[in-house]
Design brief:
Number of strands: 10
Strand order of the largest sheet: 1-2
Order of helices and strands: HHHHHHEEHHHHEEEEEHEHHEEHH
Number of helices: 15
Radius of gyration: 23 Å
Strand content: 5-15%
Amino acid sequence: MIGQAVLAALAPGEQQHLLDARQMQALSFSVHIPLVCFGTAFPAMILFAEWLSHRTGDAELRRLARRWSRVMVALFAVGVITGTILSFEMGLLWPAFTATFGSVFGLGFAIEGFSFFLEAIFIGIYVYGWDRLSPRLHMLSAVPIILTGFTGSFMVIAVNAWMNHPSGFHLVGGQVIDVHPWRALFDNPYFWHEIAHMYLAGYIVTGFVLAAIYGFGWLRGRRGRYERAALAIPLTIAALAAPVQILVGDWAARDVAEYQPTKLAALEGLGRTEKGAPVHIAGWYDAGRGEVRYGIPIPHALSFLAFHRFNAQVQGLDAVAPADRPPVNVTRFAFQTMVGIGTLLALLGVFYLVVRVRFKRLPETVWFYRALVLAGPLSLVALIAGWVTTEVGRQPWVVYGSMRTAQAVTGAGPIPYGYATLVIVYLAVAGGVVWILRRLARAELAA
């Protein structure tokens, strides 16, 4: 009886708080995604530091790896909290989505769950194994952490790619039939650019955030061997990944042009279908005029970027009904924010690599370290802006072309109360994270 009452309360219906529900989901993703970046990239950096310590006999590198491993545990624990909240939200906020399509994408979340448990087990072995396992065995115990961190994010991205380019099923009378989960998740042409884009983003965000922390210390005079290594390892990795991300971004844009032309039109504010379509830098999309105002146009650039031909025809927003268009200015602003910050990070990375290769040292100008301190938080902004671009640009669909977001949302009423509770929980979690990380940073640690 209780179960039926709960299901009845959550059943889809008229939902006046749809925007609140979307904001709740967006808030949870914004909190969780940076932790995913650290889950995929941080273990590899820790293992690299430990491997270097054994290779060079540098005790400071071992001390660094050991401290980072404690930070990894703290962030993993926070990720458990935020990931659990996300899992509940998928069912509670979007019951029609999970009920209708769960048989299609559920395999991905099941494998992601196994990856999570294996990751937790090996993190425990790795952290407990300092001074208890042989150096070789201890490093080997970190390898499953890296692999499971990757497979977990691999599965989540596979589900998201399917939501953007659904396949592997037929929808008849609102019922899903002829389901092929493997084909839906892993034989999806939209998947590969997403996983490459996100995996590189993980290394870029983790690298620049860590480098920003130690860059701040550098500005305050902390420039010992330990601090130099702690700065150089993540910064080098991020500096290598950031320029490559531009190429992957080009790949992603061409896939969006092919599979989600309406999203591409929203990204660039292209009101009408045309050949030789321009790109506008900045500006504001005027829906009444169907054009970008006050922007800086670059003629033919959109046609070239999307199809590698200057006079290629690009589909505009006029190709679909107004009800089938995403919020253009939100999507466009998020996209331009991501691209702008990503370009600046790539330039900063190239400057660092040039100095590193040519002069065999770290940059010495104070402006570089000031920029580095800004690069950490900006990389987080770019990460979240990228996800806003992907998710808002898919609207009004939760499953592109198959189910609208308004059809998926719960009919339950007290969403504003849940929203307020969620904000309070995240503020408490943020306070706890800051407190733990400060204690870990100040704790004395033997090599």
